[in-house]
Amino acid sequence: GAVVSQHPSRVICKSGTSVKIECRSLDFQATTMFWYRQFPKQSLMLMATSNEGSKATYEQGVEKDKFLINHASLTLSTLTVTSAHPEDSSFYICSALCPGLIDQETQYFGPGTRLLVL
Amino acid sequence: AQSVTQPDIHITVSEGASLELRCNYSYGATPYLFWYVQSPGQGLQLLLKYFSGDTLVQGIKGFEAEFKRSQSSFNLRKPSVHWSDAAEYFCAVGTVYNTDKLIFGTGTRLQVFP
Q: What chain B residue is nearest to A50 in terms of C-alpha separation?
């Protein structure tokens, strides 16, 4: 159980285009999802917390107009990188918070999306 | 503010040898502690977690970790490493008052020689 998927797994786009990444919890409902960014050989940096039905909470230094987050349902959150530029190239990973007493406060991670902006 | 330190950036062991990956945290109260593993180009897989109770936690793939409050540590161990264990290992801490956020350590890259 507690499977999280991401789509696409890899995307290459031209500078100036927008890219949407989907994060889905497949076997549980997640009111809270998270978006991380990981640079090569570095740790994960939390970008924002996505809450179903409300606005996302962005970490300091993350441009909310650049990285649009929508959490329209209990199983889906999307991250849209608007007007992508080469410096946005990175590995983006989502996670979903698994609710309930048995698995409380545990984040399950998606497989990640590799974005390359040319 | 809470923080996590993984002192070892890179560890190399022989297959069959024992393994210990270090993790130290900084937080004033009892933290929630996690170990995740990441294979190249992949997301993170949860190995084990500590919330409360028994300080020795068993996880998947034969891993275990011990929470030592006096040392603010949560070291990951495995008695016999397999070549498939080669990956990046991340320690993370959550807190009672902000349990939805995880603070990650910088990771330890494990290399296994046959």
A: B100
Q: What is the pLDDT of residues B25-69, one digit of tens each?
A: 998 777 889 999 999 888 889 999 998 889 999 999 999 999 999
Chain A residues interacting with chain B (CB cutoff of 8 angstroms): 4, 6, 32, 34, 41-44, 46, 49, 91, 93, 95, 97, 104-112, 114
Residue owning tokens 């300080």: B55
CB contact under 8 A, A43 and B90: yes
Give φ, ψ of A92 to 5 degrees. Answer: -110, 130
Backbone angles phi, psi at A79, to 5 degrees: -120, 120
Contact B25, B31 (CB under 8 A): yes
The SS3 assignment for B83 reads helix
Query: Alpha-carbon distance B109 to B114, whole Å?
Result: 16
DSSP-derived letter for residue B62 is G
